[in-house]
Amino acid sequence: MPTSPARTWIRRGLIVLVVLALAAALLWWLGRPKPIAVLTTTVGRGTVEATVANTRAGTVEACQRTRLSTITGGRIAVMAVKEGDRVRKGQLLMQLWNDDQQAEQAFSQAQLETSRRRVTEACTMADQAQRERVRQEGLFKQGFVSEARLDTVRAEADTRAAACATAKADVAQSQARVAVVGTARQRTVLVAPFDGTVAKIVGEVGEYSTPSPPGVPTPPAIDLIDDSCLYVKAPMDEVDAPKISAGQPVRITLDALPGKSFPGKVRRVAPYVTAVEKQARTVEIEVVFDDPKAAGRLLVGYSADVEVILDLRPDVLRVPTAALMQGGKVLVLDGERLVERTVKTGVTNWEHSEITGGLSGGERIVTSLDRAGVKAGAAAVAEAAAPAAK
Q: Which helix (H) or strand (E) segment is 290 a member of?
């Protein structure tokens, strides 16, 4: 049996050892690596689309738009419309001074009327001469008139018939003259080729209007648009062009209507590549709205963006595309550890990627891959989501 002093030293030693162990444990606890706070998202189901978008802003265009100018130059005598007016097909828009042509047309019409009266006169005489010819031929057969008399009557009938034919030819000639003058007059008149809205007018009454000579572009006298039918023209990268075809669904967004999108379809894909700038080769596509009235009244020239939907996968397992690492890997928060997992992906876009293997619904994957220390094997905890702003 140890003596009482020995036991005291043993107790003191044990106490010192316990204190040292507790101190070591405390130092280890204080110096241990703290778990990294990471943002996570739960693997769930939803829709994933494969899309391509235009490289530069598209434009809202009118199905019909024409920049009208008179065929010949002249002084503007009549401006029948103003900017913003709605017009009907065939309505007079502008007329140049053409009093000389109007006078010539009136003269031609008078000549035509005279020719028609001559036809009435000449053909009436021809009919009468023909009846006399028939009567004289009957009398000749009965021996009442001589052959010389019959020849005279026949010559008279032939002459009158020729005069009738000549008068009819004069009418045709007069009609052609009226048409020629009328056509020349149309060179000084602008009429609406379709129902539409006058977008812009260049020129005022009394000013001289000049048509564009070849190779020298000049502003049109009247810019007419049919804003009842609109579509969007957008440039797509030439790399994406082979994936696009007529009939594919699209989403249309307009800068003038932020936060809204409108469904549509590809109407046409240009059969050639346009090189607008160096190393910028695009293919223009035309898309139409599924419901033209849904966007309300649009203005021609609005900027628009087009997203062509190449593939659509509804109700599939998906993750944010930003959570994918190189090599098709993700970090899964398993308890308080980050575990690296290789996944298989299907359709993908900038927002979401379809998962075809390697993950199950409900697992939590890390989305804050840019934070320091986030790697496989690291201790981590999920960061609480910030409360939504009221």
A: none
Nearest in space to 383 (alpha carbons), one of 269, 374, 171: 374
Distance CA 33, CA 39 (A): 19
What's the CA angle centered on 324, arms 48 and 379, to 5 degrees?
Answer: 130
Question: In angstroms, what CA-CA distances link 74 with 95, 147, 185, 187?
Answer: 9, 68, 12, 10
**Do the Cβ atoms of 275 and 281 come closer than 8 Å?**
yes
Cα gap 14→176, rounded to integer Å: 133
Q: Which amino acid is at 133?
A: R
Amino acid at 215: G
State how far the Cα of 327 lies from the Cα of 350, in Å rounded to an integer: 17
Sheet hosting strand 74-79, strand order edge to edge: 189-191, 92-96, 74-79, 208-209
Q: Are the C-beta atoms of residues 159 and 167 closer than 8 Å to each other?
A: no
**What single-letter amino acid sits at 31?**
G
Dump pLDDT digits (tens) for 336-352.
888 899 999 998 888 89
Q: Which of 334, 342, 251, 353 is nearest to 38 (CA)?
A: 334
Position 347, amino acid: V
Report the distance separating Cα 38 and Cα 364, nearest Å.
11
User: CB–CB of 324/353 below 8 Å?
Assistant: yes
Tokens of 374: 């986030």
Contact 75/97 with Cβ under 8 angstroms? Answer: yes
Give the pLDDT confidence of 197-250 residue by residue, as tens digits.
998 888 888 888 877 666 566 678 889 998 888 999 999 998 999 999 999 999
Q: Which two tokens stand for residue 211?
A: 């048509």
pTM: 0.64
List, in order, residues 6 or more apart from 305 with CB less than 8 Å away.
53, 54, 57, 58, 234, 252, 253, 254
